[in-house]
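Form 7-S
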Amino acid sequence: MPSTYRPTPVSAPLSSGIYLQVGAFNGERNAEDLVNRIRTRVPDVEALRVVSGGSLHRVQVGPYPDREAAMAAAQRMQARVDVTPVIVTR
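Output:
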């Protein structure tokens, strides 16, 4: 099955804030597969992206306005996608 994930070029650095990290992979294809799975099961998810640095590809959602909003989104994501998001701040 071909991947439907299409990375969007980012011309500016990602903003600081509170994010959910839902996966981290050595292979970009694995990160893309997770993005596709999330988009299928959580079609209303916004600001879902793969953040690549070196050989690590992190799947993140956000930023969220505060930790409470991120925690609520993490619970929804865990219930729908069967992942355990981690809250990250940058």
